[in-house]
Each structure stands twice: as C-alpha cells, then as structure tokens.
Amino acid sequence: MARILSQFTITPDSDGDYTLHLEDEEGETIELSASYEQLDLIVEAIEDALDIDEDDVIEVEDEEKSTEE
User: Fold this and answer.
1) What is the span of the domain harbouring residue 27?
2) Which of 9-13, 55-59, 64-68 has the lowest mean pLDDT?
3) 8 A C-beta contact, residue 30 and residue 21
4) What is the rounded distance in angstroms from the CA atom of residue 29 to the CA atom of residue 1?
5) Could you report the per-residue pLDDT of 22-53, keeping only the tens digit for each?
6) Residue 11 burial by CB count (10 A; 0-12/13-18/19+): exposed, middle or buried?
7) Number of domain units in the chain
8) With the C-alpha atoms ordered 41, 37, 3, 24, is the resulting torsion angle positive or negative?
9) Do 5 and 29 fall into the same domain?
C-alpha cells in the first residue's frame, strides 16, 4: 500500500546534485540523491500529470455548470 506524503525537501549538495527527503505521515523519511536532469524529468512528469488532472477538473466543472442552467 502506498504511503501518504507528509512533506518533502530538496537541497543542493556539494557535488552539484540534489538530496531529496520524502517524509510520510508516520514520520519515516526516505533520502534520495538526484541530478539536475533527474529533477527536471520529475518536474516534467508532475506537470504532465497535473495538466491531465486539470483538464478532467475543468471538464467536470463545465458539466456541472451546464446541468445547473
């Protein structure tokens, strides 16, 4: 079962990479190292997912407005 994300931080390290700390709601933390390129891919994937969700939300809102009229 997937754990629920509570918080996260991204900090640069001395090697030019980044350290990600992902904490779940129980306080367990996962620490990962990622390059700039990897973070850029993560950002793109998040934007793509949010764009799809945004389109779905807008579609539902439009349907709700048309049924209210």
Assistant:
1) 1-34
2) 64-68
3) yes
4) 16
5) 999 999 999 999 999 999 999 999 999 888 87
6) exposed
7) 2
8) negative
9) yes
Q: Is 7 helix (H, G, I), strand (E, B) or coil?
A: strand
CB 20 within 8 A of CB 8: yes
Q: Which residue has the tokens 């969700």?
A: 53
Q: DSSP 3-state assignment of 6?
A: strand
Place of tokens 């030019």: 16
Domain shared by 21 and 48, yes or no: no
Answer whether 6's CB lies under 8 Å from 17's CB: no
pTM of the model: 0.68
- Give a three-class secondary structure readout of 8-65: EEEEECCCCCEEEEEEECCCCEEEEEECHHHHHHHHHHHHHHHHHHHHHHHHHHHHHH
